[in-house]
Design brief:
two-stranded antiparallel ribbon; oxidoreductase; 11 strands; alpha/beta
Length: 346
């Protein structure tokens, strides 16, 4: 009788560390955190280039690339703030620097970005599509002519051969329209922070249906999600440490509106006028003060190590294949790495 071969060991669950949102943390410190995440066996070191103009993604990813050897390096960049030629040039350079480890995550250029950067607004979906198409063409190293509504390129190319002509491009998406677009354009999708596992499940289902409409296998898409995380010895301390960050999700009316369009059951529309009034009167401090605790605990992974593990498992159960955990405070980093680390992978 032929002996039965042992079943292959299951692939380890992927997890990434997300950085860049806390303005008190320097790029050098973040690069050190990326290296620590690599030693702990994390899959990805991710940098969020935010609307609030914290550190620059190009500088940060260069530092991450020089500080690490194995982890995937990802970053968000909003289209229209750089030209598609510059974005392709940057992506190819960072990919070369890191030895082929870059994931470029592009986000739509919205009215908020236009107002903050003093640039005219163009249709977000059209602009995003044209950027993705033209960046992909440029990364082949060939000459590109592109005639779109927003992007106009006339016989241009990179003056060096990209290490990889197929650098993965994910789409950052928070709204229903954005998720439908991501299913059409992206090698993956990045779901927004400040959402519950129930939102994630609704977003994944929307992605699945959108893929089926265009005869695309939904399994082709990496589903990553930024997860605001606060890990402490007790739940009360953890909630207090992350309350500020949850409050920032309600400073613009468009943010909760986009999440409700997908299906975020935590947000009660009747609460939003009260939140807006508090912010108008007293800024983020006043908004943070009146924010119900259920918003904090529902839209994050917060509590003890066991609480946070269980919460991340809920995001995975909802269909997230790569949770990107973002600590609420620098002192939480070591505990987060211990909670999710698997150094035998390194």
């Amino acid at each position: 009788m032929t002996p039965t071969a042992p079943a292959p060991a299951p692939a380890p669950e992927r997890v990434g560390l997300a950085l860049g949102y806390d303005p008190t943390v320097s790029v050098r410190q973040m690069a050190g955190s990326a290296a620590a995440a690599e030693r702990a066996g994390f899959d990805t070191a991710f940098f969020s280039e935010t609307l609030f103009t914290n550190r620059d993604s190009v500088s940060a990813l260069a530092a991450f690339g020089l500080a690490t050897e194995r982890v995937t390096l990802g970053t968000t960049q909003v289209v229209r703030l750089r030209s598609p030629l510059v974005m392709a040039q940057t992506a190819a350079t960072l990919d070369e620097l890191s030895g082929g480890r870059l994931v470029l995550v592009v986000g739509a250029f919205t009215a908020k970005h236009a107002a903050r950067n003093g640039r005219p607004l163009t249709d977000p979906v059209t602009t995003l599509r044209e950027y993705v198409e033209s960046i992909r063409a440029l990364l082949t190293g060939e000459r590109v002519t592109y005639r779109g509504e927003v992007v106009q390129l006339d016989d241009v190319r990179l003056n060096f051969p990209p290490l990889r002509p197929d650098i993965p491009i994910w789409i950052a998406a928070a709204s229903r329209r954005g998720l439908v677009n991501a299913a059409k354009l992206g090698d993956g999708v990045l779901l927004d922070a400040g959402t519950s596992p129930e939102y994630s499940a609704n977003a994944v289902e929307l992605l699945r249906r959108s893929c089926e409409k265009i005869d695309r296998d939904p399994a082709e898409l990496t589903v990553a999600q930024l997860v605001n995380t606060s890990i402490e010895d007790d739940r009360e301390t953890a909630v207090a440490a992350i309350r500020w960050e949850v409050a920032t999700k309600f400073t613009y009316a468009s943010t909760p509106k986009a999440k409700m369009s997908v299906g975020e059951p935590t947000i009660d529309p009747d609460d939003l006028p009260r939140f807006a009034d508090a912010f108008a009167r007293g800024g983020k401090a006043a908004l943070q003060e009146i924010l119900p605790e259920r918003y904090v605990t529902s839209l994050t992974a917060t509590g003890t190590a066991d609480d946070v593990r269980a919460r991340i498992a809920a995001y995975r159960q909802a269909g997230v294949t790569l949770p990107l955990v973002r600590p609420a405070a620098p002192h939480q980093l070591d505990r987060l790495l211990r909670t999710f680390g698997r150094p035998e992978v390194g």
